[in-house]
Amino acid sequence: MRKTLFALSLLLFCSIGNQTLANKRSIIQKRPPADLVKAFFAEICSKECSEKKIAQLRKNLRLELHDLNRDSVPEYFLYLDRADVCGAGGSYCYYLVYLKTNRGYELLAKGVKLSPLESYTNGYRDLVGNNRSDLSIVPCYADYTSTTYKFDGQKYRTDIIKGDRKRNEKCK
Question: Is 36 within the bounds of a domain?
Fold first, then answer.
């Protein structure tokens, strides 16, 4: 009886732990839906990308899934993971965030390195975008800007922009 209770308790604990971990971490999916990919490239390329260029970029397309509005259906965070787009350290990856609707995919937000926060505004999680500038007026430091995005009922809007400076660990 004790072994059975212990096994059930362990199973319950592990399933709750995994669910919590899944909510905190982004889930990477190899192949985003085709109509979402089409919407993404229509937004970032307009008329400037050839089919050949889109095929090249598609290899570096990344998708993160985050539930932003507590409906248990994740929203889509897409970005291109390429040094020529994001910078060598990935500091400038431009994210587009989409909501799946009956009419297709609706663009909710765009920004650099977007990720969800724990706070909510109008039923949607707030987002933060972090951008690193390699230029700083202080030697051995890099300047960062952190932008908070809040949902206004239809889209995300920029709310707060903060600056920060961090020491470069490689600098002597």
Answer: yes
